[in-house]
Amino acid sequence: DQQVKQNSPSLSVQEGRISILNCDYTNSMFDYFLWYKKYPAEGPTFLISISSIKDKNEDGRFTVFLNKSAKHLSLHIVPSQPGDSAVYFCAASAVGGTYKYIFGTGTRLKVLA
Amino acid sequence: DTEVTQTPKHLVMGMTNKKSLKCEQHMGHRAMYWYKQKAKKPPELMFVYSYEKLSINESVPSRFSPECPNSSLLNLHLHALQPEDSALYLCASSQDQTSGYEQYFGPGTRLTVT
User: Fold this and answer.
1) Which one of A29, A32, A82, B91 is separated from A17 by 20 to 30 angstroms, measured CA to CA?
2) CB-based contact (8 Å) between A32 and chain B?
């Protein structure tokens, strides 16, 4: 049972345009969400997080939006740059108790110059 | 400094070998993690250490044996592995094991079992 899903395995965007990566989850107990970027042969790099008490968090070119009623979050990258080409994972953890992140299956973003 | 280091970067071992993976962080984090990642799949949690004690074992086979000698170091001892254990092994750390703290990953060890 995949509790965190990224339904688009890949996405291509022109340089300078907006990239929108989506993530859906099924567990209503999830209260903290992370986005990671991963280049080949490297570990994931933390990008941005959002708590369930917020619906938006912004850090430079990266903005994460959370829609709790739809159990959906999205990562917006504006403007997209060729160096953003990587695999993006969303991850979610549940309130209280043991701390464990469940990762989505990833979306490969390709930014075209 | 948000660096987690892992050694070796690559490891090839036979099914009868014993080897160890090492992970180190100097961020004062009290939680450390081992993940396994196969190609085109998300990272899968294997073990969690919190304050140097094993907190979570995700039903990992005993041929994988974790060790946390101190708050900065995490080892993964490997013995009698199978070819299907070939994967990228990632170490991560976070300030605490409770929710709300991001995990910082190392670059991983690419393990090949022959």
Assistant:
1) A32
2) yes
